[in-house]
## 1
Amino acid sequence: MVAVLKHGTTKEQTELLINWLKNQNVDVNVSEGHEYTVLGLVGNTRNIDVDLLASLDMVESVKVVSEPFKKCNRKFHPDDTVVTLANGTQIGGGSFCMIAGPCSVETHDQIILVAERVKAAGANVLRGGAFKPRTSPYDFQGLKAEGLELLMEAKKVTGLPLISEIMNINHLDMFEDVDIIQVGARNMQNFELLKELGRTHHPILLKRGLANTMKELLMSAEYIMSGGNENVILCERGIRTFETYTRNTLDISAVPMLHDLSHLPVIVDPSHASGIAKLVRPCALAAAACGADGLMIEVHNDPIHALCDGAQSLTPDQYDEVAATVRKVLAAVAQ
């Protein structure tokens, strides 16, 4: 249930109403917009007298929300959420964030070279996998703790914030200096992991699962937010369909749909969506044109010899061109 308060309602009036609602055994999520204050009622709202609530002088309107996701629902929070990193980088609310780097951290020279090149091309955040979930147990599983240490060195050299994927909540202490913790597609419905991440204040990038609906993605975000962590970024990275020419199928319609349903930022990963390097550029441009809040692109200095996902990785020179063209699309859309 959502109660929209009238413009001019005082802080004292709002607090009285909130206390009254909490006495009805519901949690109240407060969202203060430019003109209205929105109270989102979460929990068993059956005992709330809707007509009584709507009749109060300070209440503009009352809406019953049927969707099971509440905290990430735009009806509860009409304004876009903006996730701000420690260095001031913003994701959402009109900002466009470029995240780039190798699928997997391999060597010191590799991550430093790629970090410097993507920063020069305008990237805001450096990505790099230290823990790698692989379909085969015989494939490269990442450098783990050593990989995180190499990412920290790249951060010191370039100043770029970091994003890396967590696979086990027992590793959380190792991610203390990682600016964004990524939950990969395979862990989107690892609910125990999501609950624990909800108790942190780290920004979380939540990737859509390979065969999950948008509703299921939002319910996973709800797990994190219900724990108190509202710094959630959604990521569309392609879903599995009957098509075999691409690794996955980029659901470009998910970007505007998720923006309609939720106030959370939505970025696109065109690298995993297609699995083919030559398709990254057109998919990235489509994402920029349809209103995505950012892109996450895999960049490797030597894709042919990459230990992970070389076929979908751009070279630094290719990334330079893609980043420049994305900026042109953003400028055209803004006109």
## 2
Amino acid sequence: MLLAVDIGNTNITLGVFENESILETYRLPSDKELPQEEYEILLHTLFKKYNIHACIIASVVDELNRTFKHAADNVFHLNSILLTNKLNLGIKLKLKNPKEAGADRIANACGAYVLYSKPAIIVDLGTATTFDILDKNGDFLGGVIMPGLNLQFRALNKSTSKLPKIEADTVDKAIGNNTADAILSGVIRGSACAIEGLINQCEEELGKKAVIIATGGYSSLIAKYMKRKFDFVNPYLTLEGLRFLYELNKKNPDFTE
């Protein structure tokens, strides 16, 4: 069985695959202060019923790269693959500086390349809201990065003296008649408008309609306020991309660090 790990700025998402089927997923906080030994205990507890024979990790938190890789290697007695742009990706990175491509964005692009038609726009609603864009040939062109919903909520609370901290939720009207609803409208409806508008602009640059794939926890919430709906919502797209990348690189001995 394969363990695919997506280490984000807020959460670590873990998925167990048997061949092409995802059996179970887990989510942990991305705690940079947690020692390796504690991660080993967590991994052993969560996955003791599975026969994990391989592991691939995508991380955007440099402080956790070595810690988590070594924890997984020790618990499962293997040599985990740490995703970088130096691996066999199966797609072309048409970026001015390929080193800038985040591991999660590479995994998203690879997942979309395998699972969906092209051109494709992947909208990942995480700590940041990112667009990862594949052209008609499946080449990764780059994309868009904007603040995610929780970042917007926190920024409004921390940067002002009177605006409260609230959680993402539905909002019935664009015109909020109290502070909380006004904030929700600005962040939720505003993000939906921004996403929809950026999709249109990206499609103009691509020269044709794209398949729109959403991933991340707030996909369904944002979709409520968009006229142009997502073609697919795949909460496990990053993990699916990691599974594909593992298959491409499992015989490569040069992926340790």
## 3
Amino acid sequence: MKKIKVCADPFPPYQYIDKDGEVKGRDYEIVIEKLRLAGYDPEMCIAPWNQIYKEFENGEQDVLFQAQDSPERLEKFYFSKLLRYAVTEIVTANAELVDLKTYEDLTNYKIGVIADFANGPEIDGLPSSCKVEFADTKEILQAVSRRKVDVGVCDQGVKEYLMTKEQVLYPIKELTYQRPLYVMFRNQKQRDDFDAV
């Protein structure tokens, strides 16, 4: 089997390191199994998005999963067939904001986002001046709860997994959207092998 370096950010319950130091998660299991069936021996790294994305861009990692496509990424890298759709929510601790109707309405508020993360055109197209960057979803949820930001952008499944009973956050239903997620490769043959399984 050929060694292949695989990375993803911690996004429980999809991929995370458990209390025993083992990598677990639904997307992790799917991707690793497909790579093994394609003839590869995966070496896994779970780290913050801004770290793994730089490592992937620099060639230190071969595969990055749970990635969203963008014109820039499509020019440089090879994307698998669809891994799954993620539901993205805009959440707030301020019940008065739950009736916002358009993404443009968000420009009047501080928006918590993950640093260097592609959230899709709905959020990525907003001015950077209204965005506050955080390392991960947990930090975003804390910042929204403590009202350091007005709203936060987060994956619905991750939010439900991480939220504590003390946190009272409201999704802005009109602004909930789906994002397609893929496995991103630096090498076309590796991508083709993965897709063929």
